[in-house]
Amino acid sequence: MSQDNLIKLECSECHRINYHSKKNKKIIKNRIELKKHCKWCKKHTIHKETK
Q1: Is residue 42 domain-resident?
Q2: pLDDT of amino acid 4
Q3: Could you report the per-residue pLDDT of 1-51, keeping only the tens digit for each?
Q4: Whole-angstrom Cα distance, residue 28 to residue 7?
Q5: For the chain, what is the domain count?
Q6: Family per UniProt (predicted)?
Q7: Residues facing 3 on adjacent strands
Q8: Alpha-carbon distance 42 to 20, whole Å?
Q9: pLDDT computed for residue 33 by the predictor
Q10: What are 50's strand-pairing partners?
Q11: CA distance 19 to 8
Q12: What is the CATH number of the domain that holds 28?
């Protein structure tokens, strides 16, 4: 994956970085929020894009 398109997804409850993903930053300007499974919280939580 290209480093320019790489983003980190952080759990909104425990604030741990659990996922890495990519996005097209030219098309999508705002930050992504996805509902993913957190292995630390052991449930589905909202994961937000971090810097």
Answers
A1: yes
A2: 79
A3: 667 789 999 999 999 999 999 999 899 999 999 999 999 999 999 999 998
A4: 12
A5: 1
A6: Belongs to the bacterial ribosomal protein bL33 family.
A7: none
A8: 18
A9: 95
A10: 8
A11: 6
A12: 2.20.28.120
